[in-house]
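Reopening this one. Same input as before:
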Amino acid sequence: MIIFEFILRRLFRRRSNILLVVMLPLLTLLLPGPEPGQWLPLPPTFQIYGLAVLYVAARLTIIVLEDRNSGILLRIGVAPITRLAYLGQALLAFLVIVTALNIVVIGVASFLHGIDGATAGALFVLYSLFTLASIGLCLAWYTWVRDKETASLVIAFLLVLIAMLGGMMWPIQIMPTLLQQLAVLLPTYWLVEGLLVIATGAAIGELLVPLGLLLVFAIAFLLIGSTKLAQ
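Same output, byte for byte:
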């Protein structure tokens, strides 16, 4: 687990990472509770936290692009450890960080807003799969773009666009029909669908569709990223 520990140390050696990776998600806890008639009957924390997860994933996974540009991945190619082993330990490091954030944010928000344990557990499972899909999405992007500045600027715009089209900022029903149809191709759409299922107390079986599709997104993005990285 040398790569795992190495990446964790590198990530938290930078003060900017501590600010953006840790403080940004925790700030969502300061949001007020849901208002009567709100389109998503959950505290806004859970809605905005999804966007925070996307940006945390982008901030963490850019280290893979940095390692490729600096020649670290090239040196790994002739070392006893393979690139796929590097990727596996890097993904584990990213998941450990965001999973810890998921536990804290969902746990504290559930306590503050009186959400029961079963609902909090369902939210944790939903956000765990969304976390994996977000990390996979950002990893796939960074393995296809080599310039760090360009990659960072473009993905910042893309994540906001994905969040808006996926219905994280407003009800998807207010968007044109074509955009509503395209939205189902985004992991953010299925996060919101999962949140709606949980918030409305629908049967647990209805949550399996959003969870299953988030898992499909995660696998697809990770396969794209790992295939490109292994080349």
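So the earlier flakiness isn't reproducible anymore. For the record, The radius of gyration is 18 Å.
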